[in-house]
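Worked problem 6 (solution included).
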Amino acid sequence: MKATQILMDEHRVIERVLAVLETAASRLEDGETLDPSLFIDATEFIRGFADGCHHQKEEGVLFKAMNDAGMPSDEGPIAVMLAEHEQARAYTRGLLEAAQKMQAGEADAVEAVILIARRYAALLREHIAKEDVVLFPMAETTIPASERDRLLAEYERVEEEGVHDKYVALAERLERQVRE
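Solution. The predicted structure is:
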């Protein structure tokens, strides 16, 4: 399997959690009461899987290999992706904080959860599309074939560190929770 295909497969898991956030935000907006732990658990998924496992593969392995092959990381597509990763991290911090305030019963926290969940989901959906359609095809043509096995080995190391399967199970639990 190609290194970029692994990342695209992970994008599909992330998109499942984005759908959870979007559905939950709509339900809150419609006046439903939801357990704030859904959003807290979603931030755990984001931090552990999207950022901890997936972005680590991108930033620490793929982008580095692209950089080593001559693609700059301080400008162009890689720089855009890195900036969006930072924006996603800021939204994640904000979502966790708002969900904790919601859990504590703060009235204005629900609106903040709705807003941040939607902004995060919109950012990530656009980000994923850019990577799938633009950046990953560039990686396939930029990174020498002789480096691809090394990338896969590095991905395996990251997955062992990030407890990949635990977060896929968390995504499934969040999907069930939002359907209830």
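Discussion: Residues 27 and 33 are 8 Å apart (CA to CA).
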